[in-house]
Amino acid sequence: LIFWQMRVPRVLLGMLAGAALAAAGVAFQAMFRNPLASPFTLGVSSGAGLGAVLAIGFSRAYPLLGSGLMITAAAFAGAVGSILIVYGLAGVRRGFSSNTLLLAGVSLGFICSAVILLVQYLSDEAITNETVRWLMGSLSMASYDVLAHSAPPVVAGLVALAWHWREMDILMMGELVAAGRGVDVRRVRKWIYFSASVMVAAVVAHTGPIAFVGLVVPHVVRLAVGPMHGRLLPAALLGGACFLPVCDVVAANMMRWVSGGASSLVIPVGVLTSLIGGVFFLGMLLGRRVETPIV
Q1: Contact criterion met (CB below 8 Å) for 216 and 277
Q2: Mean pLDDT, to the nearest integer, of 165-184?
């Protein structure tokens, strides 16, 4: 019963979330032509976090909001709302350019983070503790129902991204080059934006924000298979589906291993992925050649 009802759904959710975050990272890096772009660049994670924090914060006055289903629904609504707001802000500039998307997403992320801090400040200690734990990112809510709810948007998004892998290759050369080669840049960018964002929203609503998967995995697999998205996208899917469950196993057993079996404390997987991501990029920074400063 423990194996089939707890272990298997948790591994499957880790594989699904890791694949979705890694594929979204590849898509956003192609769209922005920036290797540091991530699934959370456009405020999807912050919107989901705000929705969940509001539901948890008002759960004392409205106990129904404190249920797992309502928190998940609020997180998904917040993520979708942030997607639509960023799209609307980008449309105001009449270009839907990558720079406008990036600035709108970052700005919205700051606003959501500020509101989250305000809600935590105004809440009591128990509510604040619950919101902080949700924002750490975890696979503890895994179940077959969660998989049934999150898998269809993820699969649909992956199919849409796979359909446009050639256009992503051309977008990496620049918007003018892509337009000159017959790519409808605005349409393709919208497909990539909505497909990747909805995938991330479907995952983050159940797991909370799990950082750096969409940054670390694309970088590693790009070194192995190259920059062509026909190989990079499936390699990132496989890499993310392996990386996150392994991180979850390590995070769940780390304190027990360190204490020699004396501690049963389970660390949220989002904490470990953030630690790995920080060390990974610090190693990349130190491994680069020293650049000659311009005088």
Answers
A1: yes
A2: 85
pTM: 0.91
Tell me the DSSP string of 55-101: HHHTTTTSGGGGSHHHHHHHHHHHHHHHHHHHHHHHHHTTS--HHHH
User: What is the C-alpha separation between 240 and 221, in angstroms, rounded?
Assistant: 10
Q: Tokens standing for 273?
A: 């992925």
CA–CA distance, 15 with 243 (Å, rounded to integer): 8
Distance from the Cα of residue 82 to its chain's centroid: 14
Can you tell me the distance from the alpha carbon of 125 to that of 137, in angstroms, rounded to the nearest whole number? 19
Mean pLDDT score, 128-147: 92
Burial class (CB in 10 A: 0-12, 13-18, 19+), 120: middle
| Tens-digit pLDDT profile for residues 31-45 | 888 888 888 888 888
Please give the share of the chain, as a percent, with pLDDT higher than 70: 96
* Contact indicator for 56, 71 with CB cutoff of 8 Å: yes
* Distance (Å, whole) CA 236 – CA 225: 10
Q: Which residues contact 247 (CB under 8 A, 6 or more apart)?
A: 269, 272, 273, 276
Question: CB within 8 A of 108, min separation 6: which ones?
Answer: 42, 43, 46, 47, 82, 85, 86, 89
What whole-number distance in Å separates Cα of residue 159 and Cα of residue 156?
Answer: 5
φ and ψ of 45, to 5 deg: -65, -40
Tell me the two tokens of residue 214: 């969409």
The residue assigned the tokens 């992925």 is 273
CA distance 79 to 81: 5
How many Å separate Cα 105 from the centre of its chain? 13
Q: How far apart are CA 53 and CA 217, in angstroms?
A: 28
What is the phi-psi region of residue 93: left when phi exceeds 0, alpha when psi lies from -120 to 50, beta otherwise? alpha
